[in-house]
Amino acid sequence: MRPDTPRPLVAGPDDGPAPPFPITLFGPVIKGFGRGSKELGVPTANIPPETLEKYPDLPTGVYYGVAALDPQKFHHHSSVTVFPCVLSIGYNPFYKNTLKSIEVHIMRPIDTTSSDSTPSSFFQLPDFYSTPMNLLILGFIRPEYDYVSKEALIDDIKTDCAVAVRSLQRPAYQKYFKQAIETAGFSSEIESQSDSQSKERL
Fold it and tell me: Is residue 11 situated within a structural domain?
């Protein structure tokens, strides 16, 4: 059950992601349980859990980072294909899932000039099943929790989004957006940079 304690305002160090982050995942968007949008009003895009095979020790929980959708497959009236995101990796104790899932909530582009980080509503894109998605996970927000009600779960997801926005507004994290936009995804240069940063911090 979720502890009754105040939530931190940001997640991760100010000077940039700490090991094991950044973590890169890649996969096509697949159908999930269908509850995020219908029951919670929080649209999610799932990618296959097999993409976690090279990270067997990654804890379940809620993370934040950057999602890049393949511009050749993602068709939207906006030209934006790189977004901030919050993602849940695990079993969702509230629904008592028995299968691990990766559920990604794509958020609206961040306004770095605004101090308002609490979403008034959850961002929604048209369905984009089968679209290849690159994920760059930059930090861990919290473990998975069970909740006394659906409303309590939704409130915590709103807080997750606010924490993610505040965390990603920091300059050391904004550079990952710029690199992803410049490369229309995540290049091998970013992945090798991620590996070298992890080695430097160890």
Answer: no
Within-domain flag for 8: no
37, β-bridge pairs = none
What pLDDT, in 10s, does the model give residues 53-89? 999 999 999 999 999 998 788 766 667 889 999 999 9
Q: Are 9 and 119 spatial neighbours (Cβ–Cβ below 8 Å)?
A: no
Q: Given 3-state DSSP classes, what are the helix, strand and coil percentages for the chain, each rounded to the nearest 5?
A: 25, 20, 55
> Measured between alpha carbons, how far is 126 from 41 in angstroms, rounded to an integer?
14
Place of tokens 């994290």: 173
Give the total number of structural domains in the chain: 1
Enzyme catalytic residues: 103
Residues of the chain with pLDDT under 70: 34-38, 75-78, 112-121, 184-202
